[in-house]
Every structure is written in structure tokens, then in C-alpha cells.
Amino acid sequence: MSQYGKAEYWEERYTRDPEPFDWYQRFAGVKDLVQGCFTPESKLVNVGAGNSRLSEEMFDEGYQNITNIDISHVVTKAMQEKYKDKGPNFKYLHMDARAMDFEEGVFDGAIDKGTLDAILCGESSSANAQKVIQEVHRVLGPKGIFFIISYGLPEHRLQYLEKPEYDWNVVVKQVHKPTISTSIAITNEDKDAPNVHYIYICTKGQPKGAKQ
């Protein structure tokens, strides 16, 4: 599935299939963990939002300050039209998560549902994944939280998240995969993994090793 790391693949896919699609989890599956990390007042960025309903469902739960970014022009334009009545703080922007056009420290939280996983399928995967993580770290405020929903086992993800240059503490949670799943693993990495998705909660300014 190396095409998942290519922008051209997503342009073609969203042109061919504009219907909403959610990798891994809907909001209901991670709601309790999200509520433990963010308040309705939190200023959030959804990295690689695609046409997932996650942000829409969060909006309906009161999280109405969400900036959604995606590398696909096609999906960004479609989502801008779909959600044009949601208000000025719920927006979709065409943007590469490896080089975000935001000032430093402007968000309280960042959410990633499958974006790092997709990047890790592509060419220069490790370097590109690291660029995304560096950018997320940069745009988060002093107590910001990076909330990652992934199929990747801790032994495959913590090597990217627990680098010395990141002043955050990483806590790993698990949620059960939905019974009817659109959450097939992007690669064979988790073919022997339990029937769960992993939630990586990276909290800036929290002592490393602290439990959440």
C-alpha cells in the first residue's frame, strides 16, 4: 500500500469516491479519551482530515474550533463547500502537514487519525513522518496535546514519538476496533496484533513517564 504515502493517490481517490470515509474509528469510539484531553474551547487542528466525519461529529459535541488540513485539493474544496455553514472557526485548508502554514504554538491540540500510518507506507517514510511530528510539536502550545489514532503497535510508533527533542510525555491507550470495520490495516504491520487500535497521547510540558 505504498501509494497511501503519495498525494496523487489521494487526489485520484477523492475524485473517484467523494463519499465520507472513516479510517479506524468514528468519534464515538474515542469520545471518552478526547474529552479527557480537550475541552470545547480547545483550538484544534485535524492533520490529514480527508473526508472523515470525525471533525463533524466533534463539532456536534461542542468542539467547534477545528482547523482541518489535508494535502488533497479535491477533498479540501469538497469539505469547504459541505461545511460552509459551520462558522468561521470550523475550516478546511489545503496544506501539507510536513510544512504547516501556521505560527508557532497556536493550537491547544492536534488530532491524527491514520495520517502518520499512511505516510509510513510511502517513500522516505521515516523522514516524512518525522517532519509531520516536528511540525505538530511546533504548532502546539506549551501544554498542547498530540492525539494519534493508529493501528501501529507501540514498538513501531514510539521510536518516532519519544525522541529527546520533544518535550512531551507519551501515554498509550487502546480502544477496540469497531465490529464492522473500515479500519483494515494499511500494511501487514499489525497482522498478528490484538483487535484494538492504539491511541498515542503526547502531552507537552508533562514529565516523561507521567500517567494520564
Please characterize this protein's 3D structure:
- The protein has 212 residues and is α/β, with parallel strands linked by helices.
- The protein has a 7-stranded mixed sheet with strand order 3-2-1-4-5-7-6, with helices on both faces.
- The protein is built from 7 helices and 7 strands; from the N terminus they run ααβαβαββααβαββ.
- Residues 181-190 have low confidence and may be disordered.
- The longest helix has 15 residues, at 125-139.
- Helix 3 links the parallel strand 1 and strand 2 (66-70).
- One of its GO terms (molecular function) is S-adenosylmethionine-dependent methyltransferase activity.
- Belongs to the methyltransferase superfamily.
- Residues 46-148 form the Methyltransferase type domain.
- This is Methyltransferase type 11 domain-containing protein.
- Keywords: Methyltransferase, Transferase.
How many runs of DSSP E, i.e. beta strands? Answer: 7
Rg to the nearest angstrom?
16 Å
Q: What does the main sheet amount to?
A: 7 strands, mixed
Helical amount: 25-40%
Supply the number of helical segments.
7
What is the terminal-to-terminal distance? Answer: 34 Å
Portion in strands? 15-25%
The low-confidence parts are: 181-190
Major beta sheet, strand line-up: 3-2-1-4-5-7-6
Protein structure class: alpha/beta
Please trace the helix and strand order, writing H or E for each element.
Answer: HHEHEHEEHHEHEE
- The averaged pLDDT comes out at 88
Q: Categorize the overall geometry.
A: globular
InterPro entries: Lys/N-term_MeTrsfase_sf, Methyltransf_11
Keywords: Methyltransferase, Transferase
Family: Belongs to the methyltransferase superfamily.
GO biological process, one term: methylation
